[in-house]
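Re-run requested by the PI after the first attempt was lost when the workstation crashed. Everything re-entered from the original request form. Ligand of interest: zinc ion.
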Amino acid sequence: MVNYKDLGLVNTREMFAKAVDGGYAIPAFNFNNMEQLQAIIKACAETKSPVILQVSSGARKYANQTLLRYMAEGAVEYAKELGWEHPQICLHLDHGDTFELCKSCVDFGFSSVMIDGSSLPYEENIALTRKVVEYAHQFDVTVEAELGVLAGVEDDVVAEESHYTKPEEVIDFATRTGCDSLAISIGTSHGAYKFKPEQCTRDPQTGKLVPPPLAFDVLEEIEKKLPGFPIVLHGSSSVPQEYVDIINSHGGNLPDAVGIPEDQLRKAAKSAVCKINIDSDSRLAFTAAVRKVFVEKPGEFDPRKYCGPARDEMVRLYKHKIIEVLGSDGKAE
Ligand SMILES: [Zn+2]
């Protein structure tokens, strides 16, 4: 048993309270490897932004749970080395699907876990979430729950159709589960293909897909029911067209990849939405940078020569999100 406090990590409670008050959102960036983690910490240290490091169960299998824990501990020390005096770093399980997985993460030093019972019937979602909350809160680990279903693909999480969160359920759900934050469904979606072409319109000038707007009316209803309660948006990558273009012009094939426009996320960040999950954009930045090196320097075979530029590109991406979209810069001196 390792407590996250001994690793220098923090839970989400104070981060979220300040974010809701301040009208900004905390970035939740997924990581699977060293370069991603370095890029996240560098971007956050340079902008003094609190951050949630997210690990999915797929990432946990990929990177090894023991190694991940030491990487998170190392991340805190690395942040200090970069001159960030009081780093606020949370290590969070993304989409935990069983009590056992959540418990294992709590026991391994995570400071926050998500239990995703959104695919279960309502009462079963409540019972499972309640059980995780009761265990996690003994160790002051915060718990994110989910109501409503997002479409798209994220590691093991696959859903064909989305169902918006029902505002009439949120008070009952939050009260009975005791969860610390709530992921809702208002039209965001997992992956780099967030919408089918038939759900979008096409920009007549560029021929690019324009996605449907988020359901801000549903978000407003939820905020009215639970004033000041931390709300979370999953699947909030914007799928930057410049990365898609680089990938496609350097041997890749991502036709009609489409994400959530950043102005929509900017608007959400100013509301009770205090955690915005971004994963696909970092994958795209990494892949675009690597593909570019492979095409431009076919003789290159030193991984540092293509993972290095990929890391630099991710730092640029994360800083852009922090400063231009979420507004979390300068919030953790
Ligand atoms: Zn998600």
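Saved to the shared folder this time. Residues 303-326 form the longest helix (24 residues).
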